[in-house]
Amino acid sequence: MTSLRELVPADLFKFNSIVFDPFVEGYHMNFYLRKMIQNPKLCQVAVAPDDRLIGLLVSTRGVSKNKIGEEFRPTYGHISLLAVAADYRRLGLATCLMGQFTETVERYADWYVDLYVRPSNLTAMQLYESLGFVKFRWLSYFYENEHGYELRMPLCRDVERKSLKGITKYRFYWLYQLPYALFKEFLKGLKVLFFW
Ligand SMILES: CC(C)(COP(=O)(O)OP(=O)(O)OC[C@H]1O[C@@H](n2cnc3c(N)ncnc32)[C@H](O)[C@@H]1OP(=O)(O)O)[C@@H](O)C(=O)NCCC(=O)NCCS
């Protein structure tokens, strides 16, 4: 039976088949070790019956700089990495890992969960939207070669959905960022023109 357990340092030598995917951001070993130490419960792996790692979720908790209602320093959960081995996809594994994560941050009474995703990652977008995440803001060139979205999902503590405050403003945020993005494209074009 597939089971979930905490990520341990020895797993870092076993999860290449999961993280070698164009949509998975590459991180240094120190990154994983730091996350494991910060909050081991929020770093989970899914293990197949043959002891193979088939799913991974790395997340952490943070304190928001922005005020939410009367709460000056609302806490939130942040997902840094979610990936499932290619031959175990569409079986509900990511949903299961996300469910376990949400249960943990709900127990900490956090306000919301956030993560960053590439707009071209339609599979992940569909997964997150099916779980209740909404596009909070558009981030110009968040990734080296692509823009990004910050997705957010309010948790039970945020009854009035205050963590989504400003979402309308951010819907049009890309309008402010557009001239900058176009200028960057223009510079890229010049670079190609002169250095080829
Ligand atoms: C995104 C990813 C984690 C999904 O894992 P998964 O275990 O296959 O997801 P689930 O089986 O739990 O799917 C849950 C829902 O997500 C959506 N979904 C998942 N895979 C999909 C696909 N290939 N096409 C369309 N929708 C898809 C569906 O809505 C699905 O619900 P349904 O099966 O009831 O229709 C996996 O495809 C993956 O590892 N991708 C590469 C890494 C990545 O993109 N990580 C996210 C970076 S932000």
UniProtKB/TrEMBL annotation:
GO cellular component terms listed in the entry, alphabetical order: NatB complex
EC number: 2.3.1.254
CDD domains in the cross-refs: NAT_SF
Keywords (A to Z) from UniProt: Acyltransferase, Transferase
MF terms in GO: protein N-terminal-methionine acetyltransferase activity
A Pfam family hit: Acetyltransf_1
Catalysed transformations (reactions): N-terminal L-methionyl-L-asparaginyl-[protein] + acetyl-CoA = N-terminal N(alpha)-acetyl-L-methionyl-L-asparaginyl-[protein] + CoA + H(+); N-terminal L-methionyl-L-glutaminyl-[protein] + acetyl-CoA = N-terminal N(alpha)-acetyl-L-methionyl-L-glutaminyl-[protein] + CoA + H(+); N-terminal L-methionyl-L-glutamyl-[protein] + acetyl-CoA = N-terminal N(alpha)-acetyl-L-methionyl-L-glutamyl-[protein] + CoA + H(+); N-terminal L-methionyl-L-aspartyl-[protein] + acetyl-CoA = N-terminal N(alpha)-acetyl-L-methionyl-L-aspartyl-[protein] + CoA + H(+)
Top-level taxonomic group: Eukaryota
UniProt entry tagged with the keyword Lyase: no
Top EC category: transferase
Positions of the N-acetyltransferase domain: 2-156
Known role: Catalytic subunit of the NatB complex which catalyzes acetylation of the N-terminal methionine residues of peptides beginning with Met-Asp, Met-Glu, Met-Asn and Met-Gln. Proteins with cell cycle functions are overrepresented in the pool of NatB substrates. Required for maintaining the structure and function of actomyosin fibers and for proper cellular migration.
Record note on quaternary structure: Component of the N-terminal acetyltransferase B (NatB) complex which is composed of NAA20 and NAA25.
Family designation: Belongs to the acetyltransferase family. ARD1 subfamily.
Entries under PANTHER family matching the protein: N-ALPHA-ACETYLTRANSFERASE 20
The name this protein goes by in its record: N-alpha-acetyltransferase 20
Species in which this protein is naturally found: Drosophila guanche (Fruit fly)
Lineage: Eukaryota, Metazoa, Ecdysozoa, Arthropoda, Hexapoda
